[in-house]
Automatic annotation (TrEMBL):
Record keyword Membrane present: yes
Annotated keywords: Cell membrane, Membrane, Protein transport, Translocation, Transmembrane, Transmembrane helix, Transport
Protein role: Involved in protein export. Participates in an early event of protein translocation.
Major localization listed first in the record, in broad terms: membrane
Name assigned to this protein: Protein-export membrane protein SecG
Membrane topology note: Multi-pass membrane protein
Keyword Protein transport on entry: yes
Compartments in which it is found: Cell membrane
A Pfam family that the UniProt record links to this protein: SecG
Organism the protein comes from: Limosilactobacillus panis
Domain of life from the UniProt record: Bacteria
Transmembrane segments: 6-25, 53-76
Family per similarity comment: Belongs to the SecG family.
Length: 79
């Protein structure tokens, strides 16, 4: 049981790393943002669409699986 959980955990770890690395950058480093303290960014936030939305959902699911599997591994290893 422990070996199976560990294998699944390692697979989820690799997928989670890939998902985080594939997400597009959300910051615009321009001079005006640096001068105004980023006040213009307040209303420029948009909902993620398309690829960004899918990657956010997949990253959230992988993160939840990572947390659940980590707790399961701790429980199995202690008993």
């Amino acid at each position: 049981m422990y070996n199976t959980l560990m294998t699944i955990f390692l697979i989820v770890c690799v997928v989670l790393i890939a998902c985080v690395m594939m997400q597009p950058a959300k910051n615009d480093n321009d001079a005006m943002s640096a001068l105004t303290g980023g006040a213009g960014d307040l209303f420029s936030r948009r909902k993620a669409r398309g690829f960004e939305a899918v990657m956010q959902i997949v990253t959230t699911i992988c993160g939840a699986l990572f947390f659940i599997l980590a707790l399961a591994l701790v429980y199995v290893s202690s008993h």
